[in-house]
Amino acid sequence: MKMTWGKLFFLAIAMQFAGLGAAQAAGVSMQTGSRTTQPVGHYEFCRRLPQECRQVTPKQPPVELTRQLWATVIEVNNSVNTRIKPRTDMENYGVDEYWAYPDNGYGDCEDYVLEKRRELMKAGVPAGDLLVTVVRQPNGDGHAVLTVRTSLGEYILDNLEARVLAWTDTPYTYLKRQSETNSGVWVTINNGRADAVASVR
Questions:
Q1: Among residues 85, 83, 199, which one has the least CA distance to residue 144?
Q2: Beta carbons within 8 Å of 45's beta carbon, 6+ residues apart
Q3: Strands 142-150, 130-136: parallel, antiparallel or unpaired by DSSP?
Q4: Where are the beta strands (DSSP E) in 70-172?
Q5: Parent domain of 30
Q6: Is residue 159 part of a domain?
Q7: Is 149 among the domain residues?
Q8: How many CB atoms lie within 10 A of CB 17?
Q9: Contacts for 78 with CB less than 8 Å, ≥ 6 apart
Q10: Is there a domain that residue 201 lies in?
């Protein structure tokens, strides 16, 4: 039987969702530590758009990961990765580091993250479950991804990876991320790689 693109898309979602239980069993949530410095790009972003860094979320369990939410997460990740074209901050804004929503259709890793976060918040996911996260790639370069906290574990939305993966299935060293309770506060991530925690500051 010939399958349409729509059927293939929802089959892929079902297959990924079916594997979530195993992913959760294999990898637990990130262990965060003490408060740390904001990345300079996020600090400047907050100065321009202060409301973006005043989102307070009560301390509560992560959002429940339903099939509908999983489909939404995959759709947003695919849509933003396809719709936004890569361009450095120097090419886009004439400066080395400038975090912004990619409303002109171009952006770097932080801009992809901000747009995915914005769209998932519009879909009803609490701010405290959508955390901008700074990582180090295997080649040593800094990078930003979006961590989605859920009842079945924490998953990564990444402009360098088409799939939505459990954080433990990615190749990155995790350095720091936004606080679960305050979008303007950043905390360290303690994942057993202490030599890298001195990271992007």
A1: 199
A2: 52, 53, 99, 100, 114
A3: antiparallel
A4: 85-86, 106-107, 130-136, 142-150, 153-158, 161-166
A5: 5-196
A6: yes
A7: yes
A8: 17
A9: 162
A10: no
Q: What is the pLDDT of residues 122-140, one digit of tens each?
A: 999 999 999 999 999 999 9
> Tokens 């004439």 — which residue?
94
SS3 percent helix, strand, coil of the chain, rounded to 5, is: 40, 25, 35
- Name which of 180, 186, 185 is nearest 199 in CA terms: 186
Question: Distance (Å, rounded) from C-alpha 183 to C-alpha 135?
Answer: 18
Closest alpha carbon to 184 in 37, 13, 11: 37
130 and 109 Cβ atoms separated by less than 8 Å: no
pLDDT, tens digit, 9 for 90 and up, residues 44-90: 999 999 999 999 999 999 999 999 999 999 999 999 999 999 999 99
CATH number, domain of 105, equals: 3.10.620
Contact residues for 168 (Cβ-Cβ < 8 A; gap 6+): 23, 26, 27
